[in-house]
Amino acid sequence: MGCGTPSITNDQTKISETKQEIQKSEKQMIVLNGVTAVGKSSVFKGALKKPHLKDEFGFSVSHTTRKPREGEQDGREYYFVTDEEFDQMVKDNKFLEYTVNHGKKYGTSFMAIQKVLEKQHCILDIDYKGMQTLLKAALPQKQINILISPPTDEEFEKRLRTRGTESEEQIQTRLRTAIVELNFFKENKGLYQHEIINDVLDVAVEEFSAILEQITHQ
Ligand SMILES: Nc1ncnc2c1ncn2[C@@H]1O[C@H](COP(=O)(O)OP(=O)(O)OP(=O)(O)O)[C@@H](O)[C@H]1O
After folding, report:
1. Does 216 score more than 60 pLDDT?
2. Are residues 211 and 194 in contact, defined by beta-carbon separation less than 8 angstroms?
3. What are the residue ranges spanned by the domains of the chain?
4. Residue ranges of region Disordered (predicted)?
5. 132 phi and psi, to 5 degrees?
6. Does residue 42 line the site of ligand 1, with CB under 6 A?
7. Is 163 a catalytic residue?
8. CA dihedral defined by 152, 153, 157, 160, rounded to 10 degrees?
9. Where residue 16 falls among pLDDT bands split at 50, 70, 90?
10. 201 lines ligand 1 (CB under 6 A)
11. What DSSP string describes 157-208?
12. H/E run at residue 32
């Protein structure tokens, strides 16, 4: 291999080093799951507004091929990438887990997690397929899995529509996926150390904050 040619072996070595560093870290990974629009980001954002939690916990910024919503910034809510860029990252083994949901790709990169774990416990917001990959591939002893559930099976659809960020076609796709998601969560409750019913948001934020506080005291 010529000088300056990208080396697959070097890349693999780097990934395995990154994995080991994640494994070695004393910090925890908090994995959030829940049906579409149940309020996952509302719950963790609410908790991270609290000064005593803000410094202790960070959010792993995922990569996605979906378009940014109004007010979203590249590198803050997501890294917004093209299909080609995403596929290249998959080829280069950059993702701990990735998934296609509602026709768009979402991935959690090793680097995004490692960046947070250097200083803070890391919150991941992933879908049920991402969770399956994580369980197979990753670092179970570092994971605390939390399921956010809707108060009723109809409520998330209401929230999805009220949020107003999806077209009717996208809403229909999400609703079809939601049937599968809800079944998965009902059948796999054993995967989750905690379940929070997000009925009144402030109450759910308090419950989530209490779990985070426990983690900081461990
Ligand atoms: N407890 C609640 N009561 C009423 N509305 C809520 C509640 N929690 C969140 N919402 C609203 O529901 C909508 C969906 O919330 P949010 O975007 O946080 O969901 P999400 O689970 O992160 O969504 P996604 O599946 O797209 O990642 C938002 O408009 C939010 O303001």
Report:
1. yes
2. yes
3. 26-217
4. 1-20
5. -60, -45
6. yes
7. yes
8. 70
9. low
10. yes
11. HHHHHHH--S-HHHHHHHHHHHHHHHHHHHHTGGG-SEEEE-SSHHHHHHHH
12. strand 29-33
DSSP class of residue 74? B
Active site residue 76: no
Report the nearest atom of ligand 1 relative to the CA of 198.
1
**Residue 36 Cα: closest atom of ligand 1:** 25
What H or E segment, with its residue span, contains residue 145? strand 143-149
The residue type of 115 is: K
Distance CA 178, CA 135 (A): 21
Q: Is the CB of 170 under 6 A from ligand 1?
A: no
| 66 tagged catalytic | no
CB 62 within 8 A of CB 106: yes
List, in order, residues 6 or more apart from 56 with CB less than 8 Å away.
Answer: 120, 121, 212, 216
Instruction: For 85-144, give the DSSP string.
Output: HHHHHHHTT-EEEEEEETTEEEEEEHHHHHHHHTTSEEEEE--HHHHHHHHHHS-GGGEE
d(CA 66, CA 170): 12
Cβ neighbour number for residue 206 with a 10 Å cutoff:
15
What 8-state DSSP symbol labels residue 81?
Answer: -
Instruction: Give the ipTM.
Output: 0.98
Averaged pLDDT for residues 78-96: 94
Q: Which fold has domain 26-217?
A: Rossmann fold (3.40.50)
Backbone angles phi, psi at 109, to 5 degrees: -85, 150
